[in-house]
Amino acid sequence: MAKTFQVLTLNKIAAVGLNRLPAARYVTGSEIAEPDAILVRSHNMQEMHIPHSVLAIARAGAGTNNVPVQKMSERGVPVFNAPGANANAVKELVITGMLLASRNIVPALHFTASLHGDDATLQKLVEDGKKHYAGTELRGRTVGIVGLGAVGRQVADAAIGLGMHVIGYDPNITVDAAWSLSAQVKKAHSVEDLLRHSDFVTLHVPLLDATRNLIDAKRVAAMKAGAVLLNFSRDAIVNEDAVLAGLESKHLRCYVCDFPTHKTQGHPGVVALPHLGASTQEAEENCAVMVVEQLRDYLEHGNVVNTVNFPNLTMPRESASRLAVANANVPNMLGQISTTLAAAGINIHNMTNKSRGEMAYTLVDIDTALTDALIAQIAAIPGVLMVRALPLEAEE
User: Fold this and answer.
1) Among the four 42, 87, 133, 204, which has the fewest Cβ within 10 Å?
2) How far, in Å, CA of 24 to CA of 4, rounded?
3) Positions of CATH 3.40.50.720 in the chain
């Protein structure tokens, strides 16, 4: 009988994604005590007790700072995400943010909302007051994009379409990303180089130790006078005190972000939105479909695509029995696994292995089924974090 997988949902996951899990093999719900996997969006899992039954966590979005990734790595549990699935939604909000700032839309809306009187009175008040909200056009201005992943590249394309000049900086850009980047994007040699030449600066990097307080007082000072800073990535990438000081001195024109805080609340130079970056029906559905398909492929076949802690590794199935091993990236691990299988008289049909930092992952297709005793023997090898037997079941 095929194994039935229990999947705990910590947030509402779009039905179009959950429907990708066949009812005959998957049970989903918010009250599952011993889940095989967890689907999450924004729920904070950092202090949550995560049962040892959990084989994988899938976050329906790009960032995973709400998931205890390091703890899961130590247990050999992959943390999946959905890079690029919400890129269009974030891109559109970034363009909206630039327009809100350049055309003084928010104070203009507040102004008109405060007016009272008949039509003739309103018309006079509008004509007298509109000069205070005159703005600038985006066309011909320069936007600097820090981080040229899926979102950053889409922002670049949209800005070019609006007639803007684009400068980009990303020391970790992948080959595929570089190939898909428009030739009109000029390369900055450093963050400071980008800041000096940009009328708008938009940040699209993950929150890591290296990016925390990426925009600090020194870098605010390096920005072009009158520049607009946009942050739709993570709040801690920007040092709020430094930005507020830049606004008070009029060195910065505006700070547009997706993260309201008590420090910025009500500040006339801050446009803070309620974390709307990925809040579209399309983005939620795209993220759900992407992570559910990745999760199912891992649970049933051991394939890994788009995790933040495992190497990408997929292998077509060539036999009915498969072994998946997550282990520390140490010498002679493959040798020990293959020696253990050989000693049990098991022939290896196909085998592949990849590593990523301290983590390594191996898939082995074998000609005979694995016994519980053999799985326990492999699990006992020093450095092995998780072992799974994956028999090939009939497709639903």
Assistant:
1) 42
2) 7
3) 1-85+279-310, 87-100+139-272
Confidence of residue 1 (pLDDT cuts 50, 70, 90): low
User: Rounded to an integer, what distance in angstroms lies between the CA atom of residue 291 and that of residue 308?
Assistant: 13
- Which tens digits make up the pLDDT trace of 192-216? 999 999 999 999 998 889 999 999 9
Alpha-carbon Rg for the chain, nearest whole angstrom, is 26
The architecture CATH gives domain 87-100+139-272? 3-Layer(aba) Sandwich (3.40)
Residue 294, SS3 per DSSP: helix
Give the Cβ contact number of residue 381 at 10 Å: 16
The CA distance from 294 to 304, in Å, is 7
Helix, strand, coil shares of the chain as percentages rounded to 5? 35, 20, 45
Alpha helices for the chain (secondary structure H): 15-18, 69-74, 87-102, 105-113, 119-129, 150-161, 175-180, 191-197, 217-222, 240-248, 281-301, 333-343, 372-379
| Contact predicate 214/191, CB 8 Å | yes
Would you say 64 and 40 are in contact if contact means Cβ atoms under 8 Å apart?
A: no
Closest by alpha carbon to 77, among 86, 68, 85, 88? 68
Q: Which one, of 176, 116, 118, 114, lies nearest residue 148 by Cα? A: 176
According to DSSP, residue 147 is labeled -
Strands 321-328 and 359-366: antiparallel
For the domain bounded by 311-391, which CATH number is listed?
Answer: 3.30.70.260
1-85+279-310 — its CATH code?
Answer: 3.40.50.720
CB 75 within 8 A of CB 319: no
pTM of the model: 0.83
